[in-house]
Design goal:
Layout lengths: L3 E5 L2 E5 L3 H15 L8 H18 L9 E2 L2 E4 L4 H17 L3 H15 L2 E2 L9 E3 L6 E2 L8 E3 L4 E3 L1 E3 L2 E3 L2 E2 L3 E3 L4 E3 L3 E2 L3 E3 L4 E3 L2 E2 L3 E4 L2 E4 L1 H9 L8
Parallel strand pairs: 2-4, 5-7, 6-8, 7-9, 8-13, 9-14, 12-15, 13-16, 14-17, 15-18, 16-19
Antiparallel strand pairs: 1-2, 3-4, 10-11, 19-20
Length: 236
């Protein structure tokens, strides 16, 4: 598949679609999934796509997984579902920040329909993150740290208390394997790995820890190994 260079304020991205084609592609998908005849602003989509691609240029060179960079520059394919899910999340967020809330909601719902991935556009994304086949994953209004990796069927959600929802705070370098959860008033330190099926509910996890089930274990060396498979350049 041919890749095209797209220059952004943050650097160059190699993409399977040119900037204008990306905006047109999303516009067609939004209209197909939501055929209510309401207008979709192609110019707003293109401007937000440019900003989303700039975020990709900044963040994806830190991702060590195959296909996210080429020759030291970020790489994006609209037919790579994990990458496209991340692009749509960034696009919805940029539209939200630009006060295009209706279009942001449509792009958020498009991501949910295509990938079974629920990340509302008002949730702030970190600079460096990656979603690994995130089908069934739900991310609420938590404070997300940098170098975040989330697999399928994961939950980051609120817990009701005294008429409001308490949400988690995550440090830098958090890796959530399949079906892991972080719920409520939880503070997750930096360089933390949650094993498959593990859960933290209204609890704290210190730096350099491995969560297995509900048990928290100091595991600096193994956590560093796990994270190095996903990211490069993670601060120690």
């Amino acid at each position: 598949m041919e890749y095209f260079p797209i220059n952004t304020p943050s650097g160059r991205v190699w993409s399977t679609l040119k900037l204008a084609d990306f905006a047109l592609y999303v516009e067609r998908q939004v209209k197909a999934f939501f055929p209510d005849q309401r207008p979709v602003s192609l110019s707003d989509l293109e401007a937000a796509s440019d900003r989303a691609l700039a975020a990709i240029a900044r963040g994806w060179t830190y991702i060590a997984l195959p296909g996210y960079s080429r020759d030291g520059e970020s790489s994006l394919s609209h037919l790579h579902s994990d990458q496209y899910a991340a692009f749509l999340a960034l696009l919805a967020r940029e539209l939200s920040l630009a006060q295009s809330s209706e279009l942001a909601t449509r792009v958020y719902l498009l991501n949910k329909a295509l990938h079974g991935f629920d990340l509302f556009h008002e949730v702030a994304l970190p600079e460096v993150f990656v979603f690994v086949h995130p089908v069934g994953t739900v991310i609420g209004r938590a404070k997300l740290g940098n170098f975040l990796c989330i697999y399928q069927n994961c939950s980051i959600g609120g817990n009701p208390r005294e008429g409001k929802l308490d949400y988690p705070t995550l440090g830098d370098g958090v890796l959530m394997y399949a079906k892991s959860s972080i719920i409520g008033n939880s503070k997750i330190g930096s360089r933390v790995v949650l094993g498959a099926g593990s859960a933290v509910i209204n609890g704290d996890v210190p730096d350099d820890s491995l969560v297995a089930g509900t048990a928290i274990k100091p595991a600096k060396k193994s956590v560093a190994t796990f994270l190095s498979r996903i990211f490069r350049g993670l601060p120690q």
